[in-house]
Design goal:
Blueprint: H1 24-36, E1 39-43, H2 53-70, E2 79-82, E3 96-99, H3 103-121, E4 130-133, H4 137-153, H5 191-196, H6 203-232, H7 239-256, H8 258-267, H9 274-281, H10 301-328, H11 332-350, H12 353-360, H13 362-376, E5 388-389, E6 392-393
Antiparallel strand pairs: 1-3, 1-4, 2-3, 5-6
Helix pairs in contact: 6-7, 6-8, 6-11, 6-12, 6-13, 10-11, 10-12, 12-13
Amino acid sequence: MKRINASNITPPRAKRAMPPALDLDQNTAPLEEQERQRTLVFIGLPESNAIRPSERVQEDREAATKILDHLEVEAEPTAVFRLGRFDLQRTTPRPLKVVMPTPTHQHVALGGWKRERARLRSQQNLTRLFVRPALSKEQLKEEYEERLRKRQQNPAPPAPPTQLPKTTNDQTPVVAPNQKEASDDISKPPEFLLEFAKETPNWKLISCASIFGIIATLGIVLNCSVIYVTIRTKSLNGTVNYLLALCSFFEILHQSGHFLFVYIAFSGQNLIDFRLATKIVFIPAFGFGLPSADQINLRVFRSLYYIITVNIGGYLICVLFVSLNTHLIPSPITAWYGQVITAILLNIGAASNGPILYLTSTEYRQAFRDEFPKIFKQNLNVIQFSPQQNGTTFTASSRQQQIL
C-alpha cells in the first residue's frame, strides 16, 4: 500500500461564526424615539430674513426662548433649527424644531401650550402659532390622511362673490391710491433684499459708496477748516461766526455716517441689520436759535445767505424727489438710485460751507490765507535763483508778499 505522508495532510478548517448583519434602522430607531420624546415643533413662528445663517439661528433661538418663558419651562433647549432649506422667496415660515433636555420638559411645554395658547395667539406676530410634539413618519402620514378624510366629509363652503369696485361713466374702476391688490403678500421679502443679496460685492453699490466717501472726506476737511479759523481768528468772534462753526460741526456729524455705507459696500456685506445700522449712525438733533446780530455780523450775512440757500435747496430737492418718485418711477430699485443722485447733490451742498465763506467773505478769506500757511509750514517768500541756459541768466528777486 502506498504510504501517506502525514505532513502533506492539512487539517480541516473550523467554520467561523459570522456576525449578524447590522440593521441600521433597527439600531437607530430607539435613539430617534428618545429624541422625539423630548422634541417640540413650532409651526407658524415668523422667520428672520437676515442674510447670515448665524443671525437667523440667533433670532430663532431668542424667539423659541420667549415662547418657552410663556409656557413656564425652566430649561434652555439643547438645539433649535429650522426644517427645510432657507429661501428668500418663501412666503410661509419653516417649522422650527426645538430639542429639550428631557421628556419632562416636553410635557411641561405641551401642558403650558394648552393653557396659554389663546394668550400667545393674541399677539400680532403669533396668530398662526401652533406647538406640537415631534412625530414619526408613520404618525405624520396618519395625521395627513385624517385631515384629508375630514376635508372630504366637511367640504368648505363656497366663497362669497367678489364685489367689483365702483365705476364711473367711462366704466373705469375707481381704486383708492393706497389700496393694495389682494395678491400682495406682506411677508414677501422686499425687492432691495432680493437685488443686493444675490451679488457680493455689488459694483453699483461700491460706485455709489465711493462717491459718498470722497464727498464726505472733502466735506469733513472743509468744515473742520471753518471751525479752525473761527477759533484761531479773533475778528471772527461774533454770534453769526459761532453759529456758522456750529453748522459746520453738525455737517461733520452728518457726513461721518457715510463711512458706514462705504464699509458695507467694500466689505461685500451689502446689507446689515436695521437696528445695528440705527445704533451706528444715530446722531442726536440739537436745536439752536439765531439771536440778533450786531453791525459787525452784517459782513457775513451774504455768506450766510448763500450757505442757507445751498443747504436748504439740497434738502428740498431731495425731499421733493422722494415724495414724487413713488408716482413717477414704478421700480423701487430705480427710485433708490434716483435718491442716491439727489443725496449726492445734498452732500455737495453740505460740504460747501468752507468754499462759500472763502469766496464771499473778506474776513474768512483773510483768515484762511493767514492760518493755512502756518499749518502746512509754507514759505511765502520767492527764492532767488540763477539758472544758466545757453549763456542766459534768469534772476528773480526775493520779496515778502502780503496776500489780501
